[in-house]
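Backbone shapes recur. Consider a single case.
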Amino acid sequence: MSNTAHGTPAGYVKHYADGQKPCTECREAHLAANRDHRQGKAKSARVPAILLAELYLNASPEVQVRAEQILGTSRLESFVNRYDAGEAIAA
């Protein structure tokens, strides 16, 4: 298992990708990350791009600037273009 730190959720995935059983540290990290996600304690969340575009367009100018700083203007423009084209939010 090269280029991936043990004791991380990514390490857990890498073990399986390499055809290995995850080590104890990676398994514990994976379980902790899943627990945090279920309890609403995760540091990030997956959001459909179209929903993100809608939230961005309805946000205050201050929040829009912050989103641009974090996600990048070109990425947000891409999401907004898809939203403007009428792309549906996948369930």
